[in-house]
Design brief:
362 residues, Rossmann fold, 2 domains, seven-stranded parallel β-sheet, 10 helices
Length: 362
Amino acid sequence: MKKNKALFAISSLWLGHATRTSVVINHFLDKWYEIDIISYWNTLNFLKYELGNKKVSFIELQDYPPLERWKLLKFYYYLVSDLIKTYFIIKKENKFIKSIEDKYDFIFSDWRYWVYSPKTPSFLLCHQLSFIMPKWLNIFLKLSDYLNYISFKKFNHIFIPDYNDINFCLSWKLSHTKWINKLNYSYIWILSSFSNCSLEKNKNLIDYLFTISWYLLEDKQDFIDKLIEQSKKLDWKKVFVLWDTKNNYKKELENDITIYSFVSWEKRKDLFLNANIIISRAWYTTVMDLVELWKQAIFYPTPNQTEQEYLSEFLNKNNLFIFWNENSKLNDLVKKINNSNIFNTNSKTKEALIEIEKVILN
């Protein structure tokens, strides 16, 4: 019997999972669905802030720990301990889902690979089908792909937010792998929370917007401090958004610098639309947002985070956006921005939502 109720499980490892999946959530809210959301930590706070006044309930459920953190010997220690933690978190997650799975018409998971049900149609949103390994771990790539395949085949359908054509795509080796042909899947173009925005700017132009989400917290503050110091050498207006949902402050610094700990969706929309240049970590959701908005950007991949380093290499090779490392001087990168291309496509978020609805409801 149709219940008009859906469960969305959203990774809390970085905020982009929440912003892109919130587009799908709002789409089904408009279809008169009741929505339950599973998430954790900062991401759950963000979703409560953005969706708390709608027909949505929230469930806090511990997420998998962030891999590839720290450096040198700490890297190996945390990698092993985090994999062990992940195993036990998955077991708890499975047990919890079994206790509630009958309540829903469908389950939609963004990056939480083990939130699924053999009884209830389950769908996975994921752009990283194949992990990019550090060179010294390449011998385990086939094993990693096999484990992904084992995880993914439990879902009824995989939604891949990228373009099908390997000559015209945003993540290539991450999202295009041969084993996906054994499963039900769709390349759905992109998902961006800016899909309903008018591209007209207002008069409050921002020359540089720094949007600094997190993944590895031990690197975050040093990175922010370095960018603030370098931004003082740039002319005109600079705005920083740190995406810390536990705080709510605004600071005005010298050299025309404004810092927000956190902003609402409406303010975020205003900042992105009116920024000439975006500066960010190399998050894939941010890449999709910029494609939606026809914006240029400078990306700094998080050190040792192989997905971001690969995206940087691939998109920089195709002259899409500017990518560099943290030792690069910001004012030198700004000079290169006008020589980068803008990813030109008409198939974007609206088309993606049509495809998602067609697969889920048919």
